[in-house]
Amino acid sequence: MDRPESVAALTEALRGVGYLADRGLATTLHVALQLGRPVLLEGEVGVGKTEVARALSEVLDRRLIRLQCYEGIDAQQALYEWDYARQLLQIRALSEHQLTDEGSVDALFGPKFLVERPLLDAVRAGDRAVLLVDEVDRADDEFEAFLLELLSDFQITIPEIGPVRAASPPLVVLTSNRTRELHDALKRRCLYHWVGFPSAERELEIVLVRAPGVSEQLAASVVEAVNRLRAMDLAKPPGVAETIDWVQTLGVVGADDLDHEAVPDTLGAVVKDRDDLELVQSDLERIRG
């Protein structure tokens, strides 16, 4: 579909695919679409940062390409690699005469032996894709510098083939959980938005959209309980994703409120740390309100 022409239109389109964006986030995304700028989303774990890219790909009818960052990732792993196994089979299939032929050797580094990784895939897809660079804070400084260069011109040079450039850049969404501070240069290249925990009213609305079929009474009780959990001194406060998980889990076991006997047994859906779990189990009445 065409790009929504206003913040209100984008907000409504995102709602249509199950993502409820507040006005600040919708405005940032709208400006990014109009100006062709990358978006950097920071916030707590489980508040819907990654889901933004998925929702945008649906709204815009573009392919979602995801690069999951991790400690030790380098440019080559994110760009491309050669299929060495197939190249070896090709070499074995060539005769001695063919192996001395320059054209045959060059063909070993042709497109059919090139394995595209997310970044090369995104450059070639251009504006037919949404590129999600997920948890960029888990990568190191060197990879962050490489990303900054890539976001500047969306051109990649493959020594054996030559330069590959996007005619029109993809929409880029970077996410960070702030396990480390990103460099100012990368932040300046992007439009920035902090995705925090939603208000109780907005969270209830999100839960009812993402978990259709659960009772509004149960959803409201769970949202209130999760907000009490976030006020506790937990190592890993639950995000919206955990709220949805807990509502769905309670629905599966037939609970209709937080007084149900299954509540203590379902806390693992919302509390994902052993010490946190013991703390919550020792004070269940506080959570129930």
Question: Can you offer a commentary on this structure?
Answer:
The chain has 289 residues and is of the alpha/beta class. The chain folds into two domains: 7-74 and 119-195, P-loop containing nucleotide triphosphate hydrolases (Rossmann fold), CATH 3.40.50; 200-281. The chain is 48% helix and 15% strand. The chain is built from 15 helices and nine strands. The protein has a five-stranded parallel sheet, with helices on both faces. Strands 3-4 form a two-stranded antiparallel ribbon. Strands 6-7 form a two-stranded antiparallel ribbon. Strand 6 (155-158) and strand 7 form a beta hairpin. Helix 11 (200-210) crosses helix 12 (216-231), helix 11 (200-210) packs across helix 13 (240-252) and helix 12 crosses helix 13 (240-252). The chain is elongated.
